[in-house]
Amino acid sequence: MFAKPFRVKSNTAIKGSDRRKLRADLQSAFPSLSGEKLSQLIPSKEQLNVVKMYLHKGEAVTAYVLNKNPIFFELNKRIYPTVYTLWSYPDLLPAFTTWPAVLTKLAGGADLMLPGVVVPPSGLPEVGQGDLCAVNLVENRAPVAVGLVAVPTTEMLVADMKGKGVITLHTYLDQLWAFGEKANPPVIPHMCCDPGANGYQAEEEEEDGEKERGGEEKEEEVIMNADDIENVTAVLDNTENDTPDMDSLCLNVETESEHVSSATGQTNDDEDHGSESVDLKEMTKDSENHQDTENDQDTAEMNGTVQEQMDELLLQCFLHALKFKVKKADLPLLASTFLKVHVYPCCPEGRQLDIKKSSYKKLSKFLQTMQQRQIVQVKELSKGVESIAVVNWKHADLQAFKVAETASDEDLVKTDNVRERPCEPLEIKSFYIVSSKLIPLFEHAGLKKDALLSNADVRSIITTYIKSNELIDDYNKNYVVINPILCDCLLEKSEHHTITKLTWDDLFTRCLKKLQKCHQVIFPGQKPVVRKGEIKPIDIDIAQRGSNKKVTIVKNLEAFGLDPQTLGNALQQKAQASVTMFHVPGTKDQMALQVQGNQVNHIAKLLTEEYRIPTKYITGLGKAPKTGKKKR
Question: Which of 254-263, 296-305, 358-367 has the largest mean confidence?
Answer without folding.
Answer: 358-367
